Amino acid sequence: MARVVVDVMLKPEILDPQGKAVQGALPRLGFEGVREVRQGKRFELEVDGEVTEERLAQLHEIAEKLLSNPVIEDFEVHVS
What we know:
- By secondary structure, this protein is an alpha+beta fold.
- It has a single domain, classed as Mth169, Chain: A.
- The chain is built from two helices and three strands.
- The protein has a three-stranded antiparallel beta sheet with strand order 2-1-3, with helices on one face.
- The longest helix has 15 residues, at about 55-65.
- The model has no long low-confidence stretch (mean pLDDT about 95).
């Protein structure tokens, strides 16, 4: 069994209101020096067997078709 992590983030040109809200709250809470905050999603998938090239391609397809919106989001697949 292997664990695969899919990180999904808004594309840089897409406005991130949640990230801006967190960024605005940090100084009010006494935290300085954070230039930008972007909010994203993380998915952890446990898959049977080894992660072969074929399985990895399938996981990329899952990330593209189900876990992200490729119009406004980018994703990365990491095998843990």
